[in-house]
Amino acid sequence: MDIIKKITQLKQKVKETDLLVDKLLSRLDDEKLQSKINKDSLNLLKDEVKSSVNQIDEIVKDYNANS
Q1: Which alpha helices (DSSP H) does 1-67 contain, by range?
Q2: How far apart are CA 9 and CA 31, in angstroms?
Q3: How far is CA 8 from the centre of its chain?
Q4: Angle (CA) 58 60 65, round 5°
Q5: Number of domains making up the chain
Q6: What is the DSSP code (8-state) at residue 1?
Q7: What is the pLDDT of residue 65?
Q8: What does the alpha-carbon distance between residue 45 and residue 51 come to, in Å, rounded to a whole number?
Q9: Range of 46's domain?
Q10: I need a labelling partner for 58 at 20 to 30 A (CA). Which of 2, 27, 43, 48 fits?
């Protein structure tokens, strides 16, 4: 009877481990997605800053040409 009890406990531990692995994999996928979103957002902001700097350079250039 002791071996059946141990088998039952082992089955329960395997189920718990399986659930934990599923949760960890899901979290990893979520973090990868979040990382991609953050990277895309940073690239967008970088492009906006570059565009703004170019516009400022044009304004300064036009100002200097009119002075």
Answers
A1: 2-66
A2: 33
A3: 39
A4: 95
A5: 1
A6: -
A7: 84
A8: 10
A9: 1-67
A10: 43
